[in-house]
Amino acid sequence: MSDELLKPRWSLPLWAVCVLLSLLSAGVLFLAAAVAPVPEHLHSHVSITVDGVPQVVPANVGIDEKTQVTLPLHTHEATGILHVESPIQRTFELGEFFAEWGIPLDSEGVGDFRQSSTESFMLTPTQYGATVAN
Length: 134
Prior knowledge:
Layout: H1 3-6, H2 14-35, E1 40-45, E2 48-50, E3 53-55, E4 73-74, E5 81-86, H3 94-101, E6 105-106, E7 109-110, E8 113-114, E9 126-127, E10 130-131
Antiparallel strand pairs: 1-5, 2-3, 4-5, 6-7, 7-8, 9-10
């Protein structure tokens, strides 16, 4: 076998090879993430009404503006639809979503809306319009 057959037809500097391998690896990871099934994928509706006035559940709660990293509990639009998309199946709690939103949720109220001696606080969770037993 001649030495000519063993010589590469082109050569790249080491930094270029590293960049190409990094791009290839990133592409494979992106493709794997795009086609991988999400074991937990549910939708619920969150609505907050105070004194008969609906409050807005904003878009993009649980989605980082800069990196676009999405947490398992998040919204895409200001419709109140809560997306639950997680690589693992587990019990998610509404309080987790409110914590991501930065709004306190406890037995006394939601955010700045607090229960008083003349008012009551009621939470009615639903999934696709069906009331879930609490």
